[in-house]
Amino acid sequence: MKSITIKDVAQRAGVSPSTVSRVISKDARISENTKKKVLEIMDELNYYPNSIARRLANKKTDTIGVVMPYGTEDVLMNPFFQESLRGISIVSSDKCYDILISTSHKNEDEIDVLRCLIKGNRVDGLILTRSNENDEAIKYLRDNKFPFVLIGSCLEYDDITSVDNDNEKASYELTSFLIEKGRKKIAFIGGELHSVVIKNRFEGYKKALKDNNIEFKNEYLIFDKFLEESGYNLTDKLLNLDDIPDAIIVADDLMSLGAMKKIKEKNYKVPEDIMLASFNNSILAKYSNPSITSIDINSTELGKRACEKLFSILEGNESELKKEIISHKIIERDSTKSI
Amino acid sequence: MKSITIKDVAQRAGVSPSTVSRVISKDARISENTKKKVLEIMDELNYYPNSIARRLANKKTDTIGVVMPYGTEDVLMNPFFQESLRGISIVSSDKCYDILISTSHKNEDEIDVLRCLIKGNRVDGLILTRSNENDEAIKYLRDNKFPFVLIGSCLEYDDITSVDNDNEKASYELTSFLIEKGRKKIAFIGGELHSVVIKNRFEGYKKALKDNNIEFKNEYLIFDKFLEESGYNLTDKLLNLDDIPDAIIVADDLMSLGAMKKIKEKNYKVPEDIMLASFNNSILAKYSNPSITSIDINSTELGKRACEKLFSILEGNESELKKEIISHKIIERDSTKSI
DNA sequence: CTGTTAGCGCATTCAT
DNA sequence: ATGAATGCGCTAACAG
């Protein structure tokens, strides 16, 4: 499939390649006549500029990369990532930018993936959809001064552009909410242990307990991946304790479905025996049975704003504030209804 | 950020650029010595080949494009597309290929988007996640002999490589299933009117009615987009009929959630008053209240196989069969439980 | 306003 | 086994 080049168009139109190039890039200083002529030929020949060649010449890819935590495969099951991806997609689509999903290869070093993306000139900028403590990826991107935006927060540096919720506050509110409902044995099921989101949510939980003079019990605290299966398995541990909790806060909706399943299997009732409250307010929480109280963190908005901030950086308008906080809200549902 | 080129490495290693290039592309005929030396320098300089330049020289992008129906934004809300995307991601990640999500710009002609993708040399191949009757996109790709695989079926040509379920059969089974449960007033809520999936599912439904001597009623048949909202609105119409249905088949889980919501609002009971059965068996169907009987179509597998077939084409092994059928299975849940 | 020239970084003949 | 030269298709600096 031999493709038509700018040369073909130029020849056919009786002008030079650069003139055609100028028409393509809408250069002002070009006569209406030749412009019209060139456009005609382009249409006639069904010509379309080769984006690769263009990128090489421009040193610009018109592509933004999205980096997910651990295996994209697992992550794409989680509504939070799906929704933030959607937000990113909406904004980038508007700017006619492509999205490159970093399909991080399982056992590969993540830094390698980033290096490949950056040094390989595959993307103009990146959006990281997660952050860990001492995140090597963040350090790498920062060291290399590569444009990126974080969905989440960075603890180590304060010059990282990021979009996040106030997860500590949200978690504090959610915990207090359960305490007001009369629950005192509140367990916390986290996601990835070293992720900052989880850390924040855990802090809020702990603080709320403390402010209400409730003893924090280590066995009520467990972590694993953001998967339904993890929620299921972790809850099993909780329900095998001598003193089982009367409420569980789960750091993610998908996990809370797993938790719910296990609770039912063990013949406990939600909310009577155990109240369940969760984060992210995905569609899953809404339609689960019973429906699950969840913190709406505006996942799509997180993605949108992250992408908008990335474009600001790419366009050189880095005037905006570095750290942006997206609002959250408790959406109360049946899983925490007092009877 | 000036990047290191193959030249820099060559100079530092005291060899010519072409030698370095050969090392990179693992050319056999190169001495172990120089090879080792070059690799060392590459590591030392933290060199990484520029993928853009590489692509231009190779005329190959190592990227596959995924085309969604109408606005990517809406579609990314639907679990079916999320899951098939996940399948695609799993396979392409394995091959170290990038995935480009065609962020189809709302009002733009879809063919324009494709042309931009193809003539612009942005992707090596495409996966279409939907098919319509007289699908212009399919025609365009076929006419241009561009490598692509369809998730779905094409009615007009039989030389299109595709992966699909036997949707007519699945729908026939599902409808028969409801009839066996004693329901006779079965409505059908479709998705996009002109999509082949919906057409097939509708055919199966109609056939089952006929084989069971049940009259097909036109007012029991309605269509709209694959969105929760659509399911909600369409169900409203059904429930405003003089003779409301006692069962509804919905062509998609997300839509069925909307349907469920409306049914509840109108104070009907599922399954007692109205049975609900759906397609795609996403996590939503499983956790909905009541849980929804749904046809498991193996969405992730559809994506995986589509991607594998695309790679076969790209690698020139087009030996496989053109049309592949993925199995399906009715997953029975509470929404159709006889009392 | 337009043409000429020289890259962008890599791969690939064709020599040696 | 390696180097030199040329081209992938487009852009941009410099002329005119």
Can you tell me about this structure?
- The structure is a homodimer of 339-residue chains.
- Chain A has 339 residues and is of the alpha/beta class.
- Chain A has 3 domains: 6-58, lambda repressor-like DNA-binding domains (434 Repressor (Amino-terminal Domain)), CATH 1.10.260; 63-165 and 299-328, Rossmann fold (3-Layer(aba) Sandwich); 167-297 and 330-336, Rossmann fold, CATH 3.40.50.2300.
- Chain A contains 14 helices and 12 strands.
- A 6-stranded parallel β-sheet of chain A has the order 2-1-3-4-5-11, sandwiched between helices. In chain A, strands 7-6-8-9-10-12 form a 6-stranded mixed β-sheet, with helices on both faces.
- The mean pLDDT of chain A is 90.
- Chains A, B: GO terms for molecular function: DNA binding.
- Chains A, B: Residues 2-48 form the HTH cro/C1-type domain.
- Chains A, B: This is LacI family DNA-binding transcriptional regulator.
Distance between the termini of chain A: 70 Å
Q: Beta-sheet strand percentage of chain A? A: 5-15%
CATH superfamily of the largest domain in chain A: Response regulator
Largest protein interface, residues of each chain = A-B, 56 and 57 residues
- Please mark out the parts of chain A with pLDDT under 50 across 5 or more consecutive residues, or reply none: none
Order of helices and strands of chain A: HHHHEHHEHEHEEHEHEHEHEHEHEE
What is the CATH third-level topology name of the largest domain in chain A?
Answer: Rossmann fold
**Helix proportion range of chain A:** 40-55%
CATH architecture classification name of the largest domain in chain A? 3-Layer(aba) Sandwich
- Side by side, the strands of the main sheet of chain A go 2-1-3-4-5-11
The structure class of chain A reads alpha/beta
Anisotropy-based shape of chain A: elongated
Q: Given the structure, what is the number of helices of chain A?
A: 14
Count of individual beta strands of chain A: 12
